[in-house]
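Supplementary material to the annual report.
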Amino acid sequence: MEAIWLYQFRLIVIGDSTVGKSCLIRRFTEGRFAQVSDPTVGVDFFSRLVEIEPGKRIKLQIWDTAGQERFRSITRAYYRNSVGGLLLFDITNRRSFQNVHEWLEETKVHVQPYQIVFVLVGHKCDLDTQRQVTRHEAEKLAAAYGMKYIETSARDAINVEKAFTDLTRDIYELVKRGDITIQEGWEGVKSGFVPNVVHSSEEVVKSERRCLC
Amino acid sequence: MASDGARKQFWKRSNSKVPGSIQHVYGAQHPPFDPLLHGTLLKAAPKAPATPVKAKRISTFQEFESNTSDAWDAGEDDDGLLAMAAESLNTDVVMETAHRVLRNHSQRQERRKPQEAPGPEQEPQPSAEPPSVPSGDLRLVKSVSESHTSCPADSAGDTAPLQRSQSLPHSVAAAVGGTSDPSALSSSALSEREASRLDKFKQLLAGPNTDLEELRKLSWSGIPKPVRPMTWKLLSGYLPANVDRRPATLQRKQKEYFAFIEHYYDSRNDDVHQDTYRQIHIDIPRMSPEALILQPKVTEDNYTFAQPGIQMKVKMLEELVSRIDEQVHRHLDQHEVRYLQFAFRWMNNLLMREVPLHCTIRLWDTYQSEPDGFSHFHLYVCAAFLVRWRKEILEERDFQELLLFLQNLPTAHWGNEDISLLLAEAYRLKFAFADAPNHYKK
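Predicted assembly:
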């Protein structure tokens, strides 16, 4: 039985190979961290509900993409139907930071005519002693592209919730303001279940108390 | 923050512990982990590329072989019925056997039901998840260590994670590996048949010239553990059929290998190879050490940019399934599940990510015995694999649940028995849905 949600957002997670995309998503969706993670082949799919305000749930469908170049033709098919994205680099890997620009270019070409709301994520912030990218320069880069910047660690569960939830809230605001609209043939945003469609009595009771704006 | 000068340079400092940072690796040799050999190679390589420690290599290779042979242990071979059929691998016999295996299996399933705790596969519910987690249910998840700082409104009952089932079944497989099917044919009969199969293999391998065609037929239904290393070497063409030529060939191939190392090893730090080396360096620790097995020949198309070969195979699978099981095909289509979303990995990794390692090994016994096993027959195996889950698939009525299921199929406890069934079904499909008869040489 589905829980009630206001909207469904499709998110995409991109960035260089081995910056920790899958581990970040697993931490977020499963609440755990694996020391060893198989490289993603093509695209993996995850899902989770987030509550952005009491009673307001958003269903997130998350595409976890392979960072390796040879999978690019597979992964780029997923930009178009994503409303939000986490662009990851590894703070201990300078090159992954330098590639942020290329990732943005790559998405820009393939997302049209739509847009993706990106947040820049400096991952593996638990490894501060091996840091190769300062917070300051990352913030500067993010600002230049109109993105927010956040540092996360899947291993120590730092800011993982926040990264996803903040992005979700931002998208929600844009949807509410009408800057992002639900469109036929576009999977980025879908509106949620109407309460009376749901047959679980518990769910119905819950939703009745709530204002669905 | 650090001073300007320091900041400009700080990331260039040696970062020996950064995952993926470029470090010197001395494991690029066969056998690995031999400190003696390391020492010798390290000292000898730059100056005297030609001749160090030949004899040593061979003996340590054998050591290595025996040290690592347990990687092949998980799960005993295999299904007696298929074994008998393989002795004369003609269509009728195999078809008949395939049917018998399927029939036999369903009977066993019946018998098994009452005395066995329901595993995920036997559960009536369409769940891809461990029994403790209700299926088909979207749940709010809190990362354990973060839960107090965020999502304050989560209700207590809503905290069970939406789990992906074992996406890496190897560890589980290792734990359950070797346990043979308790409901299999009586063990004495089984072991008798196994012993006679093993004898046949040994006879064939003993030469003087191994009949490769015969070896293939025998291997189709699984290769007994003790003879698997040699059998794979012969089936893959690594070693010759003639017994007397094998030692010399092995020596030559190993020499070639070390020559490659000497030729390319030092180039790993060249600028042009940095990206490749970095990727390799990252990928090696991610591979289970048990997974270091012979690679099949693959066409360039499969592993170059855009992987047109793989994409084409996914299309072929789609076409095949549309003919084999139109209902499943339509169901996926209706819910906008694309074959690329789940089957890309099946093709790219030859199902290695979808089943436990000992199952992959068993699968590859057959792939090496089938003409074009890794390419053509694999398609039918994938089709059989998909249709194997038809009940579960048809019960899911939502894109999300379908895709989560298909990307996390509940195979963690699969054994050789399951693979034998899958192969038998694939074999049946291959004949029933042949698209072009000339695919089936003899």
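The domain at 5-189 of chain A is CATH 3.40.50.300 (Rossmann fold).
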